[in-house]
């Protein structure tokens, strides 16, 4: 039961919308709404317009599935990048984290999640088919599996390996500088950068160097 007493239904409605965002409680939501009320109308309109444009005009790169302003993102369209190396990540935040290390010059493939039966996410819900097409195309020489070192991340890594290992590509994984159970976005840039630079063959993570 809601025991908060708002002097305005408009204030209550706006606060409820902000509180629906992840990591935002009712008190923080109210503080944000009251802050907006103090701003000039032009500033609030600029704020709301940017959110609407984000939702209406944002695209996903047709090559790597990263968020983009155009059909092909800036990374995939950059001829200075090494397009023979593809780094597989869970989401857009991981792309940003790796880019911030300045230790990687290849391109990416965003899965859009990881396999998690508890959350109802299976292989068919992820961008794995297009990754297999890249592996079979002959232009990619190395695929780096850079998923979170959680049980779900390891399960997804293994599934992808089983789908790709018969293709003519080298499959590597980031070094375990990122602690077990960590998500990439929370790793510091130096640790993440070293994990990418010191990546190892994925097969080496199995017993006796062979898949189970």
General description of the model:
This protein is an alpha/beta fold and 212 residues long. It folds into 2 domains: 49 residues, Helicase, Ruva Protein, domain 3, CATH 1.10.8; 130 residues, Dna Topoisomerase Vi A Subunit, Chain: A, domain 2. Helix content is 38%, strand content 13%. It is built from 7 helices and 7 strands; from the N terminus they run αααβββαβαβαβαβ. Strands 4-3-5-6-7 form a 5-stranded mixed beta sheet. Helix 1 crosses helix 2. The N and C termini lie far apart (52 Å). The C terminus is likely disordered.
Q: How are the SSEs placed, and which strands pair?
A:
Blueprint (H helix, E strand, L loop, with lengths): L8 H11 L6 H13 L2 H17 L1 E2 L6 E2 L13 E8 L2 H8 L6 E5 L18 H9 L4 E4 L5 H14 L5 E4 L15 H9 L2 E2 L11
Parallel strand pairs: 3-4, 3-5, 5-6
Antiparallel strand pairs: 1-2, 6-7
Helix pairs in contact: 1-2
């Amino acid at each position: 039961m809601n025991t908060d007493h708002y002097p305005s239904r408009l204030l209550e409605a706006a606060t409820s919308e902000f509180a629906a965002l992840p990591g935002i409680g009712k008190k923080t939501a109210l503080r944000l709404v009251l802050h907006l009320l103090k701003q000039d109308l032009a500033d609030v309109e600029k704020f709301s317009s940017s959110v609407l444009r984000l939702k209406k005009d944002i695209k996903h790169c047709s090559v790597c599935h990263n968020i983009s302003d155009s059909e092909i993102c800036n990374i995939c369209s950059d001829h200075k990048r090494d397009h023979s190396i593809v780094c597989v990540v869970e989401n857009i935040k991981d792309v940003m984290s790796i880019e911030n290390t300045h230790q990687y010059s290849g391109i990416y493939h965003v899965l859009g999640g990881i396999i998690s039966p508890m959350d109802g996410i299976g292989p068919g819900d992820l961008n794995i088919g297009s990754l297999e097409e890249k592996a079979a195309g002959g232009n990619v020489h190395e695929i780096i599996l850079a998923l979170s070192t959680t049980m779900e991340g390891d399960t997804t890594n293994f599934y992808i390996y089983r789908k790709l290992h018969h293709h003519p590509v080298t499959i590597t994984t980031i070094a375990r500088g990122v602690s077990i159970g960590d998500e990439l976005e929370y790793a510091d840039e130096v640790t993440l950068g070293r994990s990418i630079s010191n990546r190892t063959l994925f097969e080496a993570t199995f017993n006796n160097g062979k898949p189970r």
